[in-house]
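Q: What would this chain look like folded?
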Amino acid sequence: MRRVKKCKLFLILTLLLCLIPCCVALAKTGKVTATSLNMRKSADSDSKVVKVLKEGAEVTIKDTTGNWYKVSAGGETGYVYKKYIKVTEEKKSDKKEDKKNDSKDKKSDKSEKKKDDGTCGPGDTGSAVKKVQKKLKSLGYYSGSIDGDYGKGTKSAVKSFQKRNGLDDDGKVGAKTLAKLNSKDAKKATKSDSASGSETTGKTEKLDWFNGGSKKIPKGATFKVKDIKTGKVFTCKRWSGANHLDAEPKSKDDTSTLKSIYGGWSWKRRAVLVKYDGHVYAASMNGMPHGTQTIDDNNFEGHFCIHFSGSKTHGSKKVDDMHQQCVKEALKHSW
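A: My prediction, written as structure tokens:
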């Protein structure tokens, strides 16, 4: 009997010893690498912020979900972006997720490389679009501004060029359209063709944020912002935002322009115009980088807020009177 009891005790102790490393492996730690990082209630960029973590803060990693870690810190538990946490050791499951994410990044890189060949389409911005606009203008198809923004006017001009030159009129500058555009035998526009290339947007529009307005500029979209007082224009990307739009300057130059408008960083509200997909909307912005950052090379540590008619702050969840005054002021102006 004693031998049986000893054997049972030995087996129990052995099992416990085997389980201990598993428990320890789950409770690994990490450090925040961003200036400030939002811990959210669920693995969703629109989810409620339960805590803001500062750079260097230590967290306990409990689980992983896609691009998110479930962590605990300072008595709170929530979700944070993986890319802003430096972990002490990698779990196999994490490595699998990272490989998947790396694969996605590589695909994204490939798509960016494709853009370097001069091809472009609706929604694109940058030097390739500017070159196309200049060429279309020289041929008489485009009468808008050379702003590097592939909006409705640019698309319309491309379609007119394609029809006139016997190409499929899909409104995209693919390899065939680009080759024809740069060829010596590209046909010039007639009077009817040139009229279609205008980027005129008409009257500045009021965007009612909680009445379908939040979907007008989708997450990930690139758009332009014009400061009414200075007339300065810069390009942004929508990161997220539920109560209002959270945006990031697209590049270092765009960050420099935004900073020059304020003469530094500021929470001060300013009346602005937002141009996207052929529309111009009245809006208000602040100029203070804060919270989560998704563009690493734009010299802007975080994002900034853009408000529209009826939008609210994330903290108070209330309509901000000063932002709304700026929106009303913006309605009096045009692009």
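The first strand starts at residue 28 and ends at 32.
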